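Handover notes (outgoing to incoming on-call)

Open items:
1. Putative RDD family membrane protein YckC: sequence verified, structure written out, both below. Nothing else pending on this one.
2. Nothing else urgent.
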Amino acid sequence: MSGKQEQPRWTQTWLGGVRSAGVDLGYPGERLGVPEEGSGSMARFGRRFGALVIDWLICTWAIAQALLRINPAESPWVPVAIFAVQYLLLVGFLGQTFGHRLMGIRVAAMDGGRPRWLPVLVRTILLCLAVPAVIFDRDQRGVHDRVSNTMVVRM
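Putative RDD family membrane protein YckC structure tokens:
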């Protein structure tokens, strides 16, 4: 007997995901009709996370501490409120935040255009709760994207 035992098929699926079991789910966004690569393709986790970090740093350090002289450790909800306001205004008017712009992504409605105000408001509230933003489907859409009927695409 060899030193390495083979795992049953169900264990491979459970440990490695359905792709390791030979199931082809297509590329992220394929079932939404977006291209696989380039402009208009689904933004991946790395770009989205980078944009969020940039926006959060702008809100906590640049605005809260430098401009308003508020210590986020003493008033933890102030940076969240600043983040919500800047996110709502920038995504509502421009379709992207400063972080999105730097990472080459934007928020789009499912038809590819700019999202409307109500979906942006819902998306902002859910994004501030954080949990919906870290739960993704196979198309790289978080709960906040699905509920607001939006997607984040590359520019």
